[in-house]
Amino acid sequence: MLDPIGSVPDAELSAELAAETQAPTEQVRTAATTPKRPSLWGHADYRKLWSAATVSLMGTQVSQLAIPYIAAIVLGASVFQVALLGTVEMLPFILFTLPAGAWLDRVRRRPVLIAGDLGRAAALTSIPLAYAAGVLSIWQLYAVGFITGLLTVLFDVADQSYLPVILDADDLVEGNAKLQVSAAAAQFVGPGLAGGILAAVAAPFAIIIDAASFVVSGSFIALIRKHEPKPERKRAADGTHTSLPTEIAEGLRYVLGNRYLRMIAASTGTSNLGSSLLFSILAVFVYRELGLSPLVVGLSGACAGGGLLLGAMISAPLARRFGVGPVIIGSMFMSGLAAFPIVFLPSQPILAGVLLGSSSFALSAAAVVYNVNQVSFRQAITPLDMQGRMNATMRFIVWGVMPIGSVLGGLLGSVLPLRLTILLGAILSSTAFVWVLASPVRSLRDIPKASRSDAVASD
Questions:
Q1: Can you give the three-state secondary structure of 360-426, one letter per residue?
Q2: Which residues pair with 241 in a beta bridge?
Q3: Any alpha helices (H) in 201-243, and if so which ranges?
Q4: Contact, 192 vs 304, CB < 8 A?
Q5: How far is residue 340 from each of residues 195, 266, 296, 388, 420, measured CA to CA in Å?
Q6: Alpha-carbon span 451 to 1, nearest angstrom
Q7: Up-side HSE of residue 457: CA atoms within 13 Å toward CB?
Q8: Tell me: the pLDDT tens digits for 392-445?
Q9: Which CATH number among 1.20.1640.10, 1.20.1250.20, 3.55.40.10, 3.40.50.300 corresponds to the domain 44-225+253-443?
């Protein structure tokens, strides 16, 4: 039985999970007689969505390396100004995520995905144009960061809400894992390629590659043919349409009222707060204090691609072997530990590259295992007409803390040694696993199939 806003009562979910664990013989018999599901590589619309993600993520690697380099080296910005780049880019996640989620539960998601890609391409193109005209400033980087951040809010919430429209609940873990494979490929190839490009051409011109990748991504999404029913507007008891604030409140109650989701949000938010504090000053630390080149940083960052690929390959098998809950807890614990090698980076390029690469590999592998399992769990238990608000509320919490972390990093990095500031961020991230360890998440064994019958209403 569902409550008025479509959530799964915790007692019912726990009972369902308990019933599953008490019937191993029946599970074995079902597994033996159920035909093997076809691979998603044969799913035409999923291939287009996967291709769009792969191209876009590849281009994003260039901007992620180039924009902090432009601020720190080309424009000579201060430590605090560089740290503010992350704050400005993530600020829309505080300001707009909740209304975006409620709005996205009223509209089709595919047009939003296409517009988000094309809008980010236009914003990024302004950077090389301004540089060529000799008017590029840190303020323009802030403006571009805010605009792309706003469009990313719309795109990411729509994207996570669109995947359950394309795929059945049984395919969500595989679908999310394959998307992480594309992220792994981009992370493996992208940073090294980006470092080589920055060594060959002026960093602002490298941004053109990312802009072009968004255009290609939007084109792939435009080719998806799966019919997406338009959601039916919610109605109040008196028959009138519910307001946007009312629907936002429903999303907040859904997440905060579910002890699984709220503890996952707390864990992810704590991890993101620490990592954003750390990474907000990393560019100044590696480029100015250690004197490393973009090529060394890019090549070491490519090691994250290997970690992403490993994580995508082992996330589902680990969940089957040890259970979804223990894997969520263990992967968050490992991701916290993986940040500590950054504290001990030396100025010797080869050794620094090895340590930074090792940290990136371990952090990425653990993060993928965590995200594949917790995102799939969230998607599986949430009705389709609540997906946008659920994802938006989660993003509001777990990404909304990142501007706070960036500001803290900039402030602490301005008065404390950068290495000490990085250590504080790593310590904070390492505590994130406690939230899920102290929650009913630890008892989860499988991804439940509750709530998916509440489909989006047809036209």
A1: HHHHHHHHHHHHHHHHHHHHHHCCHHHHHHHHHHHHHHHCCHHHHHHHHHHHHHHHCCHHHHHHHHH
A2: 235
A3: 203-222
A4: no
A5: 24, 21, 19, 35, 11
A6: 9
A7: 8
A8: 889 888 988 888 898 899 899 989 999 999 999 999 999 999 999 999 888 888
A9: 1.20.1250.20
Closest CA to 146 of 102, 204, 75, 85: 85
> What string of DSSP letters covers 110-156?
HHHHHHHHHHHHHHHHHHHHHHHTT---HHHHHHHHHHHHHHHHHHH
pTM to 2 decimals? 0.67
DSSP code for 453: T
- Distance CA(348)–CA(51), nearest Å, equals 38
Q: Indicate the residue type of 349.
A: P
Q: Hey, how many other C-beta atoms are within 10 angstroms of the C-beta on 232?
A: 14
**Rounded Cα–Cα distance for residues 41 and 50 (Å):** 9
Give the DSSP H/E element, type plus range, for residue 352: helix 349-381
The count of residues in the chain is: 459
The number of angstroms, rounded, from the C-alpha of 17 to the middle of its chain's C-alpha atoms is: 27
Residue with tokens 């809010």: 153
First to last CA, the chain: 26
What's the pLDDT tens digit per position in 323-356?
999 999 999 999 999 999 999 988 888 888 888 8
CA distance linking residue 368 with residue 318, whole number of Å: 12
Are 190 and 302 spatial neighbours (Cβ–Cβ below 8 Å)?
yes
Residue showing tokens 């994580």: 311
